[in-house]
Amino acid sequence: MVSNMVLMTYLFALEPVYNVSNMPLNEDYFRLLMLIVVVVLVAILAERIEKIRKLNELNQKLKMQTDKLEDANQELEAFAYSVSHDLRVPLRAIDGFSRILVEDYEDKLDDEGVRLLNIVRDKHC
Question: Can you give the pTM of this predicted structure?
Answer without folding.
Answer: 0.49
